[in-house]
Amino acid sequence: MDIRAEARQMKLQAPVLAATSVEERNAALLAIAGALEEKKDEIFAANHEDMEAADKNLVSPAVKKRLKFDEGKLRDVIAGIHQLVSLPDPLGRDLLHRQLDEGLELHRVSVPIGVIGVIFEARPDALVQISTLCLKSGNCAILKGGKETRNTNRILFKVIHDTAVASGLPEKCLVQAELHNEIDELLSCDKDVDLLIPRGSNAFVAHIMNNTKIPVMGHADGICHIYVDKAADPDKAIPILIDAKTQYTAACNAVETLLIHRDIAPSFLPGLKEAMADAGVRLRGTREVMDLLGDDKEENVMAEEDFATEYLDLIASVKLVDDVKEAVDHINRYGSHHTDSILTEDRDTAEYFMQMVDSAGVYHNCSTRFADGFRYGFGAEVGIGTGKLHARGPVGLEGLVTYKYKLYGTGQIVGDYASGKAQFHFKDL
Amino acid sequence: MDIRAEARQMKLQAPVLAATSVEERNAALLAIAGALEEKKDEIFAANHEDMEAADKNLVSPAVKKRLKFDEGKLRDVIAGIHQLVSLPDPLGRDLLHRQLDEGLELHRVSVPIGVIGVIFEARPDALVQISTLCLKSGNCAILKGGKETRNTNRILFKVIHDTAVASGLPEKCLVQAELHNEIDELLSCDKDVDLLIPRGSNAFVAHIMNNTKIPVMGHADGICHIYVDKAADPDKAIPILIDAKTQYTAACNAVETLLIHRDIAPSFLPGLKEAMADAGVRLRGTREVMDLLGDDKEENVMAEEDFATEYLDLIASVKLVDDVKEAVDHINRYGSHHTDSILTEDRDTAEYFMQMVDSAGVYHNCSTRFADGFRYGFGAEVGIGTGKLHARGPVGLEGLVTYKYKLYGTGQIVGDYASGKAQFHFKDL
User: Fold this and answer.
1) CA of B254, closest CA in chain A: separation in Å?
2) Burial environment of residue B30 by CB neighbours within 10 A (0 to 12, 13 to 18, 19 or more)
3) Among A99, A105, A119, A158, which residue's CB has the most CB atoms within a 10 Å radius?
4) How big is chain B by its Cα radius of gyration, in Å?
């Protein structure tokens, strides 16, 4: 497939999709939910092929769980589509309505971003979620999923695309890319693609960010911290630390570094060590920490620069700090502005931390694993942004829209305002 | 000056500036307004040196008007600061407040972007506007102004910076770069600088965009269009076209291409030609247009690809189209998504145009020159964005903030929600 030609056609059809009514978009979504149910035997058969290939390639059980698309996952994605249909239209909202002068009215109106390229991991449910989020928000999308679910992706895409087009949406509302070299073609489409959302390994996302002029929303790494303050409640702290590290170790919002207030370290560390050991987590840390833990293995002793490490594994870094200020400085220096949490019963210390830490998510007395579109009540998410511009944190429907200014005049020229013949009288309506 | 070291220090001080109250920031702004008035003789003397250098370099009167900083400009920038003080605090706004579960509350709160690099043309009033906009929005800024007003910039910066720091804002809230090679250093500070706003020539902005990993807000070119529909009122159309082309020819929002409905071309073009000639504007166009205009000069005949030209001069491109749809397709293909206008008395045609044109500003029956922060009632602007992400069109205070998510818990872990032991009950508060 010629991705550049596809993107060019998409760009020209994007205003047509943007101009559809929410009733048309919702009708298409409901038809897609119906078609997925109707074609489920074909879909499960395709997934069966992918699972057989996974077995042949000795894929681990944890990964196979993600590749699997069964009745349960189908039920979930269909429920997700119905939830999406129930959400209000993100388009056409009047964000500003101002009279600049008699007969000269300015509107700021929400509109889709346009053409979005999403590159995502091998998870069939992700394909359904992303494509339906894009359609609800009036965005055309080029979708490239992981090759391990190629057969499932192909049938899911066909069902979704054909149903969308049969429902009256433009032919090029969705395009599927299947080959890895098509990603490089996609990266060169900066005239036609408005936004890229890459999901996957750090190295992969960093490669995308470094090789395109298209704006990228996402995150390369997720070095999340939890600071255990001297006023922390140990009964809350230990379960939160275990959850943040182990509930889904490979997730970007899993914790990597534990910062412990020096005053409580002697009493807190032994219990932490025991709980982490029970959960299969290896602790690394500064020499001071290792001494307190009675661990003399050199490979567990960390130098300062080692704290920029994302393990995505059952390993955690531990460091002692003098106070919340030192914790904040460490996080702002070594963190990836993703999600960081403070455990303390002192509300002022918590407020200081949440004000000063420069991250998309700052938490008090809870696990960093809550950083997720579903858990924030956004419905599905297309990704999590750690940049500062546009959408940050979990990105749902709202992050897929921008706005345009509409100015309605009756013959006004700027010369009259420059000469003083006419005056602005700004009045919000 | 070592810009990289300055940026690193700024990054660490940015949370301190972000944490100041609006009273502190407003007090600093009022002190700056007072100091500018108090030091005006020194400022005017410095500007006198710059103006003498401009004379020596035979700078044109039009440009000298921009370099000049006199009582009138001082009065304007001081009035601008007072207006800025009167605007509500853009920071700390609660954009979302949702209970996820009992004792687990999510807030989305507006915060500054952080560290912004602004590179702007030789206009002393721009330095004052940009620095005070950044301070009001709690952003640290690295400022690099045009070298033609070096002396004026230096004293203005010193007055503003010293007064801000004396008012209690952090030492590194503002930094001035003076040397051209410091721009290249700035471009490499992607770990510490959150946003670049370049203003200047197309080539310069394109150079910035192509040579940094830092997100860039702005626009390289401004190919703006006006479509004269068959239902246009010629009495409105001619003055609007003249204003859009000539009121400030070098501005990015000046019109470059006129699209004329074929049905009215024979009656409309002669009057247009006469009015444009009176205003000193040369018309170029397709062979068909030139024949209608009775102009047989080959250099005025345009090929299709010539319509991607931004003149920034007293020249306009003219093309005939069959209908509004062809006009929209031309604009979406050759425009720069800046500002485009339709002249028509047919409201439905206008709505179609404004829906389908994929630009930051879409206008009806008025001049493209209205695309400006002051004219939109935003107070000052830091620039005009033609990208789709974050801020679009004229960018004022609102475009200089982002948000963070604050999640307040009481010991919650994700494991309990995954196992079904706990359930989310999203409730907006």
Assistant:
1) 11
2) middle
3) A119
4) 25
Pairing mode, strands B427-428 and B115-119: unpaired
What letter represents residue A187's amino acid?
L
Please give the backbone phi and psi of residue B224, each rounded to the nearest 5 degrees, phi first: -95, 145
User: In the predicted model, what is the mean pLDDT of residues A131-152?
Assistant: 94
3-state secondary structure of B383: strand
Longest Cα–Cα distance in chain A: 82
CB A85 within 8 A of CB A167: no
- Are B396 and B380 a contacting pair, CB within 8 Å? yes
Beta carbon pairs, A and B, within 8 Å? 239
- Which residues 93-112 of chain B have a CB within 8 Å of chain A? 98, 100, 104, 106
- What pLDDT is recorded for position B317? 96
- Name, in order, each residue with C-beta under 8 angstroms of A181's C-beta and a sequence gap of 6 or more: none
Neighbours of A419 (CB within 10 A): 10
pTM above 0.80, yes or no: yes
Structure tokens belonging to residue B300: 């005025």
Residues 260 through 319 of chain A touching chain B, CB cutoff 8 Å: none
CA distances B127 to A182, A184, A390, B117, B141, Å, are: 45, 41, 26, 12, 11
Contact B143, B174 (CB under 8 A): yes
- Average pLDDT rounded to a whole number, residues A9-13: 92
Distance CA B229, CA B240 (A): 13
d(CA A181, CA A202): 19
Q: Could you report the predicted ipTM of this complex, rounded to two decimals?
A: 0.87
B340–chain A Cβ distance below 8 A for any pair: no
- The predicted-structure confidence for A57-70, as pLDDT tens digits, reads as follows 998 887 888 899 99
Q: What is the DSSP letter of B169?
A: -
10-residue stretch averages of pLDDT, chain B, 429 residues long: 92 94 97 97 97 92 88 92 91 92 92 93 91 95 93 97 98 92 91 90 85 85 94 96 93 94 96 96 96 92 91 93 96 93 96 94 95 83 79 80 88 90 90
Residue A273 in this model has a pLDDT that exceeds 90: yes
Instruction: Check residue A264 and report its DSSP letter.
Output: G
Structure tokens given for B362: 């879409």
Buried b (16+ CB within 10 A) or exposed e, B360-385: bbbbbbbbbbbbbbbbbbbbbbbbbb
Are B417 and A375 in contact (CB < 8 Å)?
yes
Would the CA dihedral through B34, B35, B36, B38 be positive or negative? positive
Tell me, yes or no, if B405 comes closer than 8 A to chain A by beta carbon.
Answer: yes
- Residue A283, SS3 per DSSP: strand
Backbone angles phi, psi at A26, to 5 degrees: -65, -40
- Is any Cβ of chain A less than 8 angstroms from the Cβ of B247? yes
Identify residue B398 by its one-letter amino acid code: E
Token duo for residue B270: 């002669």
Collapse the DSSP code of B410 into the 3-class scheme (helix H, G, I; strand E, B; otherwise coil) and give the result. strand
Beta-carbon separation of A407 and B362 below 8 A: yes
The two structure tokens encoding residue A393: 């944190």
Query: Tokens 């393990």 sit at which residue?
Result: A311
Cα A62–chain centre separation? 21
Q: How many CB atoms lie within 10 A of CB B352?
A: 19
